[in-house]
Inverse folding.
């Protein structure tokens, strides 16, 4: 076997372009996938027209002043605003593509907001204008989603402020205290103190006093009001944020997006290098017409399958390890788990290599084997990345079964477990990969019966 | 038919007894028996699909026959397939060294030097095989078959891709091997080559061995019609017609 390995290494050394493509292409693809997974889109540029005159964005809620323009900043937390003076300038920026969209805040927004909050006259809800191009469904979906979520956050923040002011006044009504309105200071007695005064007065009255019944009614009203207004804070808080979220992670977890992207990148590289190399090198034996000469006593078919698988696995292991070592200098990885990285890489490389020899044995020609390898591996990787809940349950079950028949998903699980100590741990995916290695190796061995 | 059904000879040499090969319902070879003596040059001829390559593959040990036996075992037989079964990205010497090691030749270096001398390619030893002419590639292909110094050499249509000058060189080379005591069995479509170079011809058609004898015996086999045919090729075609092929 060593002479065959040596021969294959010599052939690879004489094919620098092929080797470069074989290494550069999967590494480039996997890095692109990794970057796409780990990074969200850049802050999109949005043209911003603010027609609200300086100092007029203040609204008054129950005597307290709130600067409405402060809440517009919420809109800019995830976008890069381009301030412009007029609507026409903003539209020009959107048309030219310089800005993803435009946000136009009219001058009457504060007045309308004030009217809506004070319920004076015929309240009209303030409206901000959003302009954007829909060059395609994806961009339209993205922009609408972005604007909706930012507006919802701004609305919620404003609502929380109003709620806070309202709750403050209710507390004064309940407990008493001072507040200012239109420049005048007021002192409010409060329901609790009212009830205490009435109680004191009742204790001082003789049992048959005719004022007693009226005071009893005042005391009951104060008690009823106190009991109900005690709940008001909680009710108002519920209205401003009606639903809280409690997060419970059932499976997985613990893996950062960056670390998961590293695992995906390395798995994709392993897959491409192994499958293409193993399939190509096995098919090459037939294309060079050497297969018949080799298997007539020089080497067994099983040896040939094992040799090609080991060659491909060793090359892919080296590429995968190099990727981890390089990426590890940029992404925080736990170097204390290095032996586990090696185990996951080795398990994945062997299973992919076994798949590669099966593909080479079935395709029998280098070009057909390469094509089949690409056609098989890409969907295999994409399917393995489909999360549960993203598709219908029945379809997900089918995807799970298909993914389990190929090495990508268990390799990803093994790498994730090795890098990030994630569920289901390392042993289960390694056992899965071992079974796939044996299975695909057997398919390759059977395929060689009709190889000559 | 003279020796078509003769028993295998005692070693050394080559023999097949009752060799049958079936692929599913199709019978590619039917009860083929013949013997070749040391130093004998035997040509296997026949129309397309006659079973020539199947017979040589069985003699080389690449295929196992459905029935029958072959002597000697594949390990003692040198095999030269129709297409050069060597690696184009390796040099001439690297190819020879690889197969010498795989053949477990006692002294691979000496075997490579001997093969290079035999093929006359010592000055091209370092050249990548893919840069050699088809004829030179075929010489290396044959040299690989001879690395283990086998007593029997099987060649599957060795001249099919060669020009006339290269064919001449090839047959000189093969003739010298036979003179040295190597039993050589080759298949060919070129009936003229069989007449010119073979000591004996085996005629296969539809998996059956129809004739085994010298070229002149084949011409005589036509009988009364022999005088009417102009040459060996015509005699061969007439023979096949006479046998219903």
């Amino acid at each position: 076997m060593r002479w065959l390995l040596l021969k294959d290494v010599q052939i690879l050394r004489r094919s620098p372009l092929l080797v470069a493509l074989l290494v550069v292409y999967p590494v480039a693809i996997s890095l692109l996938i990794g970057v796409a997974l780990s990074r969200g889109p850049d802050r999109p540029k949005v043209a911003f027209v603010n027609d609200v005159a300086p100092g007029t964005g203040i609204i008054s809620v129950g005597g307290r002043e709130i600067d409405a323009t402060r809440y517009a900043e919420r809109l800019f937390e995830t976008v890069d605003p381009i301030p412009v003076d007029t609507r026409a300038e903003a539209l020009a920026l959107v048309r030219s593509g310089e800005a993803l969209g435009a946000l136009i805040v009219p001058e009457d927004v504060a007045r309308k907001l004030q009217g809506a909050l004070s319920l004076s006259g015929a309240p009209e809800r303030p409206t901000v204008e959003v302009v954007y191009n829909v060059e395609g469904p994806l961009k339209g979906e993205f922009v609408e989603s972005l604007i909706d979520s930012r507006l919802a956050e701004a609305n919620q923040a404003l609502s929380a402020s109003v709620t806070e002011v309202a709750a403050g006044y209710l507390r004064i009504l309940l407990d008493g205290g001072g507040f200012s309105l239109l420049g005048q200071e007021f002192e409010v007695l409060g329901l609790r103190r009212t009830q205490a005064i009435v109680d004191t007065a009742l204790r001082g009255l003789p049992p048959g006093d005719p004022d007693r019944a009226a005071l009893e009614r005042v005391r009951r009203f104060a008690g009823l009001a106190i009991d109900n207004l005690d709940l008001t804070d909680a009710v108002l808080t519920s209205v401003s944020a009606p639903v809280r979220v409690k997060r419970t992670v059932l499976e997985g977890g613990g893996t950062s997006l960056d670390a998961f992207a590293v695992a995906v990148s390395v798995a994709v590289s392993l897959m491409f290098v192994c499958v293409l190399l193993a399939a190509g090198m096995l098919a090459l034996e037939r294309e060079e017409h050497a297969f018949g000469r080799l298997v007539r006593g020089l080497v067994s078919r099983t040896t040939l399958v094992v040799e090609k698988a080991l060659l491909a696995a060793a090359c892919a292991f080296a590429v995968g390890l190099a990727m981890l070592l390089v990426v590890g200098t940029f992404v925080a990885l736990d170097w204390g788990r290095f032996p586990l990285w090696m185990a996951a890489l080795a398990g994945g490389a062997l299973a992919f290599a076994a798949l590669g020899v099966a593909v080479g044995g079935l395709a029998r020609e280098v070009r057909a084997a390469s094509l089949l390898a690409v056609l098989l591996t890409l969907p295999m990787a994409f399917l393995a990345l489909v999360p549960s809940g993203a598709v219908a349950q029945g379809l997900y079950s089918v995807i799970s079964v298909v993914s389990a028949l190929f090495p990508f998903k268990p390799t990803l699980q093994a790498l994730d477990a090795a890098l990030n100590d994630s569920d289901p741990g390392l042993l289960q995916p390694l056992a899965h990969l071992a079974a796939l290695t044996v299975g695909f190796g057997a398919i390759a061995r059977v395929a060689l019966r009709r190889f000559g | 038919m003279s020796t078509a059904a003769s028993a295998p000879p005692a070693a050394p040499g080559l023999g097949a007894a009752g060799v049958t090969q079936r692929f599913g319902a199709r019978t590619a070879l039917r009860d083929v028996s013949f013997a070749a003596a040391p130093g004998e040059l035997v040509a296997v001829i026949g129309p397309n699909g006659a079973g020539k390559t199947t017979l040589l593959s069985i003699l080389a040990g690449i295929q196992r026959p459905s029935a029958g036996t072959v002597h000697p075992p594949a390990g003692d037989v040198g095999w030269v397939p129709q297409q050069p079964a060597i690696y184009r990205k390796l040099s001439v010497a690297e190819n020879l060294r690889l197969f010498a090691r795989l053949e477990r030749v006692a002294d691979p270096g000496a075997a490579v030097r001997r093969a290079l001398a035999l093929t006359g390619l010592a000055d091209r030893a370092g050249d990548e095989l893919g840069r050699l002419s088809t004829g030179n590639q075929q010489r290396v292909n044959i040299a690989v078959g001879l690395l283990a110094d086998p007593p029997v050499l099987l060649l599957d249509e060795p001249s099919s891709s060669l020009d006339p000058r290269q064919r001449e060189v090839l047959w000189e080379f093969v003739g010298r091997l036979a003179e040295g005591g190597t039993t050589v069995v080759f298949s060919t479509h070129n009936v003229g080559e069989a007449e010119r170079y073979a000591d004996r011809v085996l005629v296969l058609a539809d998996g059956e061995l129809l004739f085994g004898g010298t070229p002149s015996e084949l011409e005589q086999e036509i009988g009364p019609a022999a005088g009417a045919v102009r040459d060996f090729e015509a005699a061969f075609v007439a023979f096949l017609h006479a046998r219903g092929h």
